[in-house]
């Protein structure tokens, strides 16, 4: 046995080196996957604070790095009609020099663990109607989808997230916004990111 090992030492060393290389490649793969997961941008969208049309829409940065909110899109479904508009600027406020910049727009940096009050669902609908030049009645809408586009990784990549809420009313004409799912769907694949960027450009105000 020992004589066989000695006579085949060169080949065994080659096999051992290859096995060691494969082990290190495996460790490197695990390390890279853990690093990417830890530094992945994650946006969460939810409703909070109040009920009904005055419920607040909140977006939160659940990633470990700061991101820049590029835009917020609202898509409303009214019967067979679906309309979408950017609502990044708070059109319900009057622009004033002495007001803070962040009070006039949703665009801007969002630190890790920080959340941003996008506005009430009533205001979101009003902003969309104002941008579209249409008279949208929230009572007639059945669904609202919120999409957030962000610049991540030192603004080298456009990412995003979206979440849909079903609009339900009762006999007293009180509305509720029920999320279609608990978690927020992330927009991270190359095809999704390209479509998001194109969609944001198409609906940007002139």
What is the fold's blueprint, element by element?
Layout: H1 2-7, H2 9-38, E1 43-48, E2 56-61, E3 67-78, E4 81-86, E5 108-110, E6 115-120, H3 121-132, E7 143-152, E8 157-169, E9 175-179, E10 185-187, H4 190-202
Antiparallel strand pairs: 1-2, 2-6, 3-4, 3-5, 3-7, 7-8, 8-9, 8-10
Describe this structure in words.
The chain has 206 residues and is of the alpha+beta class. Helix content is 30%, strand content 34%. It has helices spanning 2-7, 9-38, 121-132, 190-202; strands at 43-48, 56-61, 67-78, 81-86, 108-110, 115-120, 143-152, 157-169, 175-179, 185-187. Strands 3, 4, 5, 7, 8, 9 and 10 form a seven-stranded antiparallel β-sheet that branches. Strands 1-2-6 form a three-stranded antiparallel β-sheet. The longest helix is centred in the N-terminal third of the chain and has 30 residues, at 9-38. The N and C termini lie far apart (82 Å). 23% of the residues are buried.
What fraction strand? 25-35%
Taking the alpha carbons of the first and last residues, their distance comes to: 82 Å
- Label the overall shape: elongated
How do the helices and strands follow one another from N- to C-terminus?
Answer: HHEEEEEEHEEEEH
Main beta sheet, described? 7 strands, antiparallel
Helix content: 25-40%
Query: How many runs of DSSP E, i.e. beta strands?
Result: 10
Number of helices: 4
Radius of gyration: 25 Å
Structural class call reads alpha+beta
Which consecutive residue ranges, at least 5 long each, have pLDDT under 50?
Answer: 94-98
pLDDT averaged over residues: 79
């Amino acid at each position: 046995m020992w004589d066989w090992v000695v006579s085949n030492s060169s080949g065994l060393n080659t096999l051992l080196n290859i096995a060691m290389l494969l082990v290190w490649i495996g460790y490197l793969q695990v390390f890279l996957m853990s690093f990417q997961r830890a530094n992945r941008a994650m946006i969460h969208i939810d409703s909070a604070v109040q009920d009904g049309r005055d419920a607040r829409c909140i977006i939160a940065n659940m990633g470990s790095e700061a991101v820049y909110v590029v835009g917020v899109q609202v898509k409303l479904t009214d019967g067979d009609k679906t309309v979408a508009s950017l609502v990044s600027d708070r059109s319900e406020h009057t622009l004033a020099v002495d007001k803070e910049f962040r009070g006039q727009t949703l665009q801007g940096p969002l630190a890790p663990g920080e959340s941003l009050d996008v506005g009430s669902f009533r205001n979101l609908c009003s902003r969309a109607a104002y941008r579209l030049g249409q008279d949208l009645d929230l009572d007639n809408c059945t669904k609202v989808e919120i999409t957030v586009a962000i610049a991540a990784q030192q603004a080298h990549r456009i990412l995003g997230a979206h979440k849909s809420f079903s609009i339900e009313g009762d006999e007293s004409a009180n509305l509720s916004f029920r999320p279609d799912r608990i978690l927020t769907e992330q927009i991270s694949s190359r095809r999704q990111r390209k479509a998001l960027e194109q969609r944001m450009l198409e609906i940007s105000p002139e």
